Amino acid sequence: MLNARRLGVMLAFAAALVAAGPSASEPALPQHEGPPPAVGQWVWTRTDAELLSEQTTAGIFVGTVEASGGLRWRRGLSPSLPLVSSERAAVIRFDDSLHGHWDEPDFEADLTRQLEGIVGELDHVEEVQLDYDAPSRRIPRWGALVRRWSKGPLAGHAVWVTSIPAHLTDPWAYRRAFDGAVHGHILQVFDTGLSCTPEHVERLSRQAATAALPYRVGVGAFERGEHTDHGCWFRQWRHLGHDPAFDGLWVFPAGHAYRHLIAP
């Protein structure tokens, strides 16, 4: 997911999603669309907070753990931020700078201490989302660490992790890593580099179903000029969310209105 530096650059180039229909190369939407999904929205800024509705769960970005001269925690928004939505989750982001530190002997213990410092401020938040684009080869260790956290500092919270398409290349291995450790995962399909082709949409849909874990679909309501097609992924949420394990749609708005993009 986006960090503060990338967010500033993105906002300079982002454009609102157009309301145009899908292109001929996109998979056709299911004929029986069913009811609208449960919706959550990530709140990275106060502008994002203004886009919330009373029916939307807010995922409040409370801080980032990063490796900058050692591990440290950089604060985000307050988990007690006044919001129109009464349902809220706390989002803890783990920066990509952590990727190269997994082989250090005290890394997991140091990471746990950072987490404990954050969790101490989340007494009134039921759900905690751990946002980390972990390298695929680290998924078994990341899952084992999250399992220990779920029984330790995160006990009493509903724990969700973010996932990206690369994590589901081996859906059985992903299930082994997280089954019983988390309530589920949020499959992020924006800013992943995966093109929104019929083949990719169908494959990812099958992989999410094969993993057999509760999952949500995370979409973006912004574009990076002509370099992304987040709107295509947004329109395909019903393909990705057809499985009984689907638990709703989560939106990263980056300051852009999006409710009109979710078909009733």
Give structural attributes.
264 residues, 8-stranded parallel β-barrel, 23% strand, alpha/beta, two-stranded antiparallel ribbon
The unreliable regions are 4-21
Helix content: 25-40%
Q: How is the main sheet built?
A: 8 strands, parallel, barrel
Coarse morphology: globular
Spatially, the strands of the biggest sheet line up as: 2-3-5-6-7-8-9-11
Compute the CA-based radius of gyration: 18 Å
Topology record:
Layout: H1 4-13, E1 14-15, E2 39-43, H2 46-49, E3 57-67, E4 71-75, E5 88-94, H3 107-119, E6 127-131, H4 139-151, E7 158-163, H5 171-178, E8 184-188, H6 198-211, E9 215-220, E10 223-224, H7 230-235, H8 237-240, E11 246-252
Parallel strand pairs: 2-3, 2-11, 3-5, 5-6, 6-7, 7-8, 8-9, 9-11
Antiparallel strand pairs: 1-10, 3-4
Report on the architecture of this protein.
By secondary structure, the protein is an alpha/beta fold. Helix content is 27%, strand content 23%. It has helices at 4-13, 46-49, 107-119, 139-151, 171-178, 198-211, 230-235, 237-240, and strands spanning 14-15, 39-43, 57-67, 71-75, 88-94, 127-131, 158-163, 184-188, 215-220, 223-224, 246-252. It is globular and about 45 Å long.
